[in-house]
Amino acid sequence: MLLSTDLWVGALIRRAELGGAFAMVVRKGDARAGAVLVKVVDRRAGTVRLYSEATRGDGERVWMQPTKSDFEPDLDAYAERAARIDPDVWVVEIEDREGRHFLTEAVEG
């Protein structure tokens, strides 16, 4: 059984905070079944990454980088376009000195 999105996002934020990072919901979508985008920012290193959830053919949930850009305005524009297409989408931003994403599922790329 899958967790509702609001519970899953809450757990992600808690993992990040326990790891010493700062995390917040930038955009709140549907509490039960909204898709999630995770933006990871390491200001010290000057890196930004965006992760989007996907489902493999075997049904496994994975995370991927939906765009090759690491330019923050490009990633923010991607998230805005995603929200226009799917108003249920969530956007979570994590600021971490080590650039960790705190995702427990497989991450590709």
Write the layout of secondary structure elements.
Layout: H1 5-18, E1 22-27, E2 36-42, E3 47-55, E4 61-64, H2 72-85, E5 90-95, E6 106-107
Parallel strand pairs: 2-5, 4-6
Antiparallel strand pairs: 1-5, 2-3, 3-4
What does this structure look like?
The protein has 109 residues and is an alpha/beta fold. It has a single domain (5-96), classed as 3-Layer(aba) Sandwich (hypothetical protein tt1805). It is 26% helix and 31% strand. The chain has 2 helices and 6 strands; from the N terminus they run αββββαββ. It has helices spanning 5-18, 72-85; strands at residues 22-27, 36-42, 47-55, 61-64, 90-95, 106-107. Strands 1-5-2-3-4-6 form a 6-stranded mixed beta sheet. Strand 3 (47-55) and strand 4 form a beta hairpin. The N and C termini lie far apart (27 Å). The model has no long low-confidence stretch (mean pLDDT 94). This is DUF1491 domain-containing protein. It holds the Pfam family DUF1491. It comes from Caulobacter radicis.
